[in-house]
Every structure is written in C-alpha cells, then in structure tokens.
Amino acid sequence: MPKNKTHSGAKKRFRVTGTGKILREKAGKRHNLEKKPSKVTRRMTGTVELAKSDQQRAKKMLGL
Predict the structure, then answer these.
(1) 52-63 burial: b if 16+ Cβ within 10 Å, else e
(2) Phi, psi angle pair for 20, to nearest 5°
(3) Rg (CA), the chain
(4) Which one of 18, 43, 48, 59 is most buried, counting C-beta atoms within 10 A?
(5) Which of left, alpha, beta for 23 (phi over 0: left; psi -120 to 50: alpha)?
C-alpha cells in the first residue's frame, strides 16, 4: 500500500508537542513592521496553541 504524504505547507507551519498539542506561530510579523506599533509587534511574538476548530484539519494534513 502507498503511504500518505505529509502536507509540506502544514509541516512548515505547525509543531506537535509531546502531549499532542499543535502549536503555531502568530500571524502578521513578516512585513510592514516599521509602521506597526512596538506593542503590536511584541504581542505577535511566540507560539500559541492551534484553535480547537482547526486542530482536526491540521492533524489530517500532518498525518496524525
């Protein structure tokens, strides 16, 4: 039987923890940072857990 391939876009965007949570980076910190307030750019740092409604789709794309 052929194996399922991992979605390469999802592979770059999501990370799975040891307990099975899916983490993502916050959006909006790639460009136009000069005009954004420092408070906003600081808020966009770090990783957060993926929304409950998106977890099933992300798991399917990651082959979990």
Answers:
(1) eeebeebbebbe
(2) 100, 5
(3) 15
(4) 59
(5) beta
Side chain identity at residue 36, one-letter code: K
DSSP code string of the chain: -PPPPPPHHHHHHEEE-TTS-EEEEPSS-SS--SSS-HHHHHHT-SEEEPPHHHHHHHHHHHT-
The pLDDT tens digits of the residues spanning 1-60 come to 899 999 999 999 999 999 999 999 999 999 999 999 999 999 999 999 999 999 999 999
Q: What is the DSSP letter of 45?
A: -
In whole angstroms, what is the distance from residue 47 CA to residue 19 CA? Answer: 16
pTM for this one? Answer: 0.82
